[in-house]
């Protein structure tokens, strides 16, 4: 296992925030970056801009909505899956899987599910079940695997500044939280919570009611590690400075660092 920095970042509109994204990549230099909510068709993906700063790319986009990508520094991701199995009628671009730098990377953008109850929440839960089913084999793999992305789930009340005003939101519903816990129960390690069990860590601050200046955030962007990868986890954090930039996404990048040797 070689030392790696892996990050996930919901960019909330690739074309609108490309300068922000390039600035972050050049400053923080993750070896692997998983992007969500591209909101751009594949033909609009600016691969040349990433190549110019040393990143190979793999993308699964669609016009105006959704979209995921995997970037790799000084490497080209090798695609292993595009879209989750289990529903051939699902045309939303929300899952991309690739081998890169010796790790199998699943980049995901789980459905938001609002408003709930309703068809969008039903789709969220159905998509989650497909993820859980697909993740079972990945969890059990002898190969190191990370599932990184915007899960659109606040796992517990500790992962939000104040749950009271979000009680009806799909991100906090018991069904959403139960699905996330069932995913973890397969044997995945929630990297940030594992390293910081007693610290409130936020990854998302919406644009309303001065939530960013007041640090009224949520933790919904997660990196889950299978048992083959978890022992190499050394560090994790959030690049909150990105959220403070002009024209920022409402998410900040979340990252982990992996060491060359297993923890004792």
TrEMBL record:
Residues covered by the Endonuclease/exonuclease/phosphatase domain: 7-251
List cofactor names only.
Mg(2+); Mn(2+)
Site features described as Transition state stabilizer, chain residue numbers: 152
Q: Which parts of the sequence are marked as the site Important for catalytic activity?
A: 221
Q: Enzyme group, top EC level?
A: hydrolase
Q: Which domain of life is it from?
A: Bacteria
* Residues reported in the UniProt entry to bind Mg(2+): 10, 37, 150, 152, 250-251
* Keyword Cell division among UniProt keywords: no
> What Pfam family does this protein match (any one)?
Exo_endo_phos
**One MF term from GO for this chain?**
double-stranded DNA 3'-5' DNA exonuclease activity
Q: Where exactly is the site Interaction with DNA substrate?
A: 251
Against PROSITE patterns, the record matches this protein to: AP_NUCLEASE_F1_4
Q: Which GO terms describe its biological process?
A: DNA repair
Enumerate the UniProt keywords alphabetically.
Hydrolase, Magnesium, Manganese, Metal-binding
Alphabetized InterPro entries for the sequence: AP_endonuc_1 (IPR004808), Endo/exonu/phosph_ase_sf (IPR036691), Endo/exonuclease/phosphatase (IPR005135), ExoIII-like (IPR037493)
What note does UniProt attach to the cofactor annotation? Probably binds two magnesium or manganese ions per subunit.
Q: What is the name of the protein in this document?
A: Exodeoxyribonuclease III
Q: Which gene encodes it?
A: xth
